[in-house]
Amino acid sequence: MRKGIAVSAATAIAVSALCVAPASAAPRRVHGPNGVTIEIATVNGSGCPAGTAAVAVSEDKEAFTVTYSDYLAQAGGSSGPTDFRKNCQISMKVHVPQGFTYAISSTDYRGFASLEPGASAVEKASYYFQGMSQTSAVSHPLKGQYADNWQFTDTNDVAQLVYKPCGEERNFNVNTELRVLKGASDPAKTSFISMDSTDGSIKTTYHFAWKQCPPW
């Protein structure tokens, strides 16, 4: 477990929000407020060793980006027995001005994969607030032969958004996983999938749509 990666107010996160409120006091959709900050509470996982994951927030406060520099799963060739699966869990403290809350509306994942004929790979993701039920994981498969960049987008219907309750401090958790299976591919050849690139980073972007909490 690694602690203390922080994002300054200048790089504050953008989010999509909703409050737990009676139907008669439904929260109003608004743009992201000023003064949002994010602090990374913990980073855990074989796909994000210390110092290899960073968070930045868009200027319009409608999205935040996680950048990875060493997130790769591989199988075949000289790969180790545990290299076929890599994962990363990032727990964030999102500080928002009083009267606002948020939820994830969609996520863009990007990376590169090189899969031999017969091999396959999976990108899997989920997210949830501390103390609340985890959302259903969404998986995206790739099949060999494949050698190219990849991009997947998970979009949540408005009715299915998971919102942080108004007035409560709960960490926001992001879980991702990369997995490679050799299948019927030549065991002497390496297949891999990554959320990184030769220039050192691939960005995963999480989109938000803010809402204003009702008056108490």
Please give a handful of descriptors for the protein shown.
216 residues; mainly beta; seven-stranded antiparallel β-sheet; six-stranded antiparallel β-sheet; 47% strand; elongated; disordered N terminus
What does it look like?
The chain is built from no helices and 16 strands. It is mostly beta strands and 216 residues long. It has one domain (6-212). Strands 4, 5, 6, 9, 12, 14 and 15 form a 7-stranded antiparallel β-sheet that branches. A 6-stranded antiparallel β-sheet has the order 1-3-7-13-10-11, with no helix packed on it. Strands 2-16-8 form a 3-stranded antiparallel β-sheet, with no helix packed on it. The chain is elongated, with a radius of gyration of 19 Å.
Secondary structure: elements and pairs:
Blueprint: E1 6-7, E2 28-29, E3 37-44, E4 53-57, E5 63-68, E6 72-75, E7 85-95, E8 100-101, E9 104-115, E10 120-129, E11 138-143, E12 146-155, E13 172-181, E14 191-194, E15 202-208, E16 211-212
Antiparallel strand pairs: 1-3, 2-16, 3-7, 4-5, 5-15, 6-14, 7-13, 8-16, 9-12, 9-14, 9-15, 10-11, 10-13
